[in-house]
Amino acid sequence: MATYDGLFDTLGLRDWCDGGASDGPMSMADLMAKAQGGDKAGDTSLRDLPFPSLDALHDACAAIPQSRDLTKGLETGFLGIRDALRIVVDPLTQPLSWALESMLHLMTDTPWWIMVPVLMLITWAVSRSWKIVGFVALVIAGLAFVDHYEVAMQTLAIIFVCAFICVLIGVPIGIAMSRSDRLQNIVTPILDMLQTLPPFVYLIPLIFLFSVTEPKLYGIAVILYAIVPVVRLTNLGIRLVDPDVIEAADAFGMTRRQKLFGVQIPLALPNIMAGVNQTIMMSLAMVVIASMVSAPGLGILVLRGIRNLELGTGLVAGLGIVVLAIALDRVTKASLARIDASQAQR
Amino acid sequence: MTDKTVKVSIRNLYKIFGEDPAAALAEVKSGTSKPELLDRTNHVLGLNDINVDMNEGEITVIMGLSGSGKSTLIRHLNRLIEPTAGEVLVNDEDILSWKDTRLRQLRRETMSMVFQKFALLPHRTVLENAAMPLATRGVAQEARAAEARKWLERVGLSGQDDQYPHQLSGGMQQRVGIARALASNSDIMLMDEAFSALDPLIRTDMQDLLLELQSELHKTIIFITHDLDEALKLADHLVILKDGAVVQQGEPQAILLNPTDPYIEEFVADINRARVLRVRSIMTPAVPAGEIAGEVAPGDNLESVIARAGGDVAQTFRVVRDGKTLGYLGMPDIMRALVPRRSSGASAA
Q1: Does the pLDDT value for residue A343 go beyond 70?
Q2: Where in the cell does this protein reside (chain B) (predicted)?
C-alpha cells in the first residue's frame, strides 16, 4: 500500500497502472524496507507525506517510470547516437589531435637551449619589455631547475594550441554576435551554460565519444571551457565602440567591411585582448583538470599528489602552475597595455 | 534670389519615432500636436512638415534649442536617418529612392560632415584621419596623404601629422574634422553643432576660419547650431526650428527686424542688435532733407555707424558701395532699429 494509491483510484487509472506493471529491478530502499519486514504503509501521517516524485508515484502505479529510468534513458540515448555523432565529429576534430600532438612534440623535443630563447623572443615580440622577458626566463629556469621543464612545456604546448583555436573561432563568433541581436540572444545562454557547467561535466560525454588516448579529448574540453571570455569580450568590445565614430564612418560612406576592419575591430582591440588574456588563464585552469583524462603536463603531477598522497609532488607542481600562470598573465597584460597606450582616449 | 540655384531641397519632410510611424503620420497630418501625439500614441514627432531650400554656395543655418529636431533634420540630408514621409532633393534628384551603392557614392563624393564631438578615429594619426574620406574611396596612399596635408595646412594644422587626436586640444581636433570634410572635396558640407563643444574664444576663431574658407571655396554649407549669435554671424539663410517645425526662415537680418512669432521675438530679445544689424538692412532710398555727415558701406554694422556719429543723434549718412549711392541712413532709423520689434501680428496697431 503506497501513499498515492488513492489518487490513481479516484482518477480511475488503476487498470492502466496495473496493465503497465512490469517488475523492474528493486531499488536499495525497497530492499531495506523488505529486509526490515515492516509494512508501515497504512499509517503514514501527513508529516511523512512524500513529495509526488517519480519514485513515490511508481510505488502507487507501476506504469509510471522510476527516476533511475530517466538517467538510464539518457545514457542509452547518448550511446544510441554516439556512433552517428562520431562519424561527424571525429574527422572534424582530428586536426585538433594533430595540432596538439605536433605541438607537444615540438616543444618537448626541441633542446632547451633553443626552446628557452625562442620563448623569450616571443615574449619580447608581444610585450616589448625587458623586465617581463627577464621574469619569464626566471620562471622557466626555476621550473627547469627542479626538473619540471618537460611537464611545463607540455602544459604550455596545450595552452598555446587551445588558446589559439579559441581566438580563431571565438573572435568571429563574437563579431557575428555584435552585429545581430538575435544571434546574441541565442549564443549568450550557451556561453552562460559553458561557463557555469562544472568542468568535469564536459568530460563525461567526451569520454564516451572519443577514446581516452586521443589528445583531442582534452583539447575539446579545454577549448569549450576557455572560449567563453574571448567571445563575450569581442562582442562587448565591438558594441562599446563610440557610436559617434561609427556615425562618422557611415557619413563618409564606408562599407560594412571597411567599417569592421578599419574602425570597429581596431577600437575593440583592447577588449578583445582582455578576452584573450582571460582565455589563456582559463585554458591553464582547465588543462590541470583535463589531466584526469590523460592531458600531459603539470596537472598529472598534481593528480599524482592527490591520488598517492604525495604532498611534496603535488605542492611543487601546484606552485609550478601558479608561476606559469603569473608569467602568462604578465605577458598578455603587457601586450594589452601596449595596445591601450597607442590609442588612449584620455 | 532668382539667380541662385537650389542645391539641396527638403519637401514636406516628416519624421516620427515610434512603433507604427505610418499610423501616427496620418494623425499628425490631421492636426494632432506633438504633446498630444506623445500622450495618446506614445510616438515622438521629430520633424513636422519641413520645407527648406538650400542655395548653392551659401551657408544655411538651422537653429533651434535642444530637442527642436535640428540634429535629426541634418541627418536626413545624407540619410543617416530615414524619414517617415517627404522628399530630400540633392541637385534635383530624390535621394530617398537611391539604393545603397548610390547612397554611398553621395556620402563619399557629394556630402561631407563635421560632428559636434569631432568623431575622429582615435587609433589613426591626424594625417590618416584627414585622409579618411579619400582612403574610403580607394585613393592611393601617396595621393591622399598629399591632399590631406594640403587641407590640414589650410586649416592651420601643419606639422601635427603624426599626432594622435587625443594629443590635440578640442579646437585643434575640430580643425582636423574640418580638414577631413574638406579633403573629401564634396560640394556640400554638413556641420552638426560643429563649434558647440569649443570654448567661446576658440569658437570665434573657428567661425572666422569657416567664413574665410567659405569666401574662397563657396561650398554649400548646412550648419546646425543652438547659438543665435553664431547663427547670425554665419548665416546667409536662417531657419529657426521649434518642436520639429519651421517657425520662420529667411535672411537673418530680416528675421531680426520682422519676427513673425512671439517665440522668435523672445529669442532675439537678448541679442546685441547694434553689432548684428547691418546698414543695408535698414537704409532708406528716400533722400533726407538734412546735411550728409559722411559715407558708410552697406556691410557696416550699426555699432560702427554710431561710433562714427560720435553719439550725435541728428546725423545722416549716405550708403555707398563702389562709388554708387545705394541709399541713406539717418540716426533716428538706427535708434528705431535698435529697439526689439514686436512680431508682425502684434505691431500692426
Answers
A1: no
A2: Cell inner membrane
